Amino acid sequence: MTSIKVNNPFDQSLIQELPETSEREAMEAMDKAFELSTNRQKWLPAYERVEILERVVDIMSAQVEELTQLAASEGGKPYMDSKVEVLRAINGVKLAIEHIPAIKGEQIPMGHTASSANRLAFTQREPIGPVVSVSAFNHPLNLIVHQTIPALAVGCPVVIKPAALTPLSCYRLVEILYEAGLPKDWCKVVLPARDVSQNLVCDPRTNFFSFIGSAKVGWMLQSKLSPGTRSALEHGGAAPVIVDHSMFSETNTAKLDEMVSSLTKGGFYHAGQVCVSVQRVYAPAGNSADLAERIASQAKVLKVGSQMDHDTEVGPLITPAEVDRVESWVSSAVEKGARLLCGGNKISDTCYEPTVLLDPPEDCEVSKMEIFGPVVCVYSYTDKDDAINRSNGLPFAFQAAVFTQDLDDALDMSQRLNATAVMVNDHTAFRVDWMPFGGRDASGIGMGGIPYSMHEMTRDKMIVIKSSVLL
Q: Catalytic pick from 156, 187, 275, 351?
């Protein structure tokens, strides 16, 4: 039987070896999910779902340190940020509990025409059916929470495939669900080969497909879904930031310092391996070099190293191949004329220096693609319209940001930027788990966020009652 090795991204040491899920095991998981969803006698009533999830919160809250160590060791996110992820994951479960009572339908007016007289009509929200979720590596616990807990909260059975590089947090969460009283057939983890995963996703019994990962894989799977399967795909982007000249006023140094810190955090958090990391910063030509130098000065002192060190601010990239790719892209940008202000070198096979580039050409990879590494690019503009057009010039559209002290300017740019969310005076990577979150265009389809996913994983059923006693 083929096995999957889970390695520590920093030193490549083996953490655990897991057996690959066979096609038979994967299809058995779908068989059970389909049986549960089609037999109403086996549905979990809302109060039981609430009780199970409340116990999940209690168990996770008692194991914050263990969950942090596990997520950090397999994912490479620094310990301090992994702890924040665990706390967010716990809050995500709480959010799901809070929103279970909000799953409701509405009354549909009748009697306004002779043909609709003597009728009462209303809708109910029902669980959509089996959910198949395919996840990414960069938030090994919180992504799993977002792709399983909403489904279970509304009464959908789930088959979850975590990233092969980071499956351990997923397995642990599902174990916690079982400990909390969830019958095992309601949530199954699978780690099958790619063709088996595709068969599972495209099975006609899959009612909802949740995907977080590359656009190439996501759109390919979307194109093969069975008729009627609904989906939510999140593919990442190349987050643009437009900085207005008002941020560089001599009387505004505190705001400028705050912005630089925000952009530095948003660009180098988790070594840039976040779908909404600060990547492209557009600043007025007279100020762009100064802004880039300020970001570089903060980037230079960030502590890079083992994610298990409590002081580390930038950890490893997920694989050595990713380090090589980022190094190649930065070298290409510099060769084509970008000014390298800091970084630009491999620290080791697994770590790359936080890097700031000024005015890389538009035709190089760092300007055209999602970098997904610790690299921030600053671009000069002389015309605000040009900055907006360049920001909107890629096929990706996810979160964007505007820094300005002018309210009209903030409103104008927020409306004109092609994005699902625009942060004003904050970095592009801001997120809380109760807000809608997702991409548009090549960046995906559908919206995540705990309450939004819960809504997507239910569907309307209308009931019309005819009675002569009704007016």
A: 275
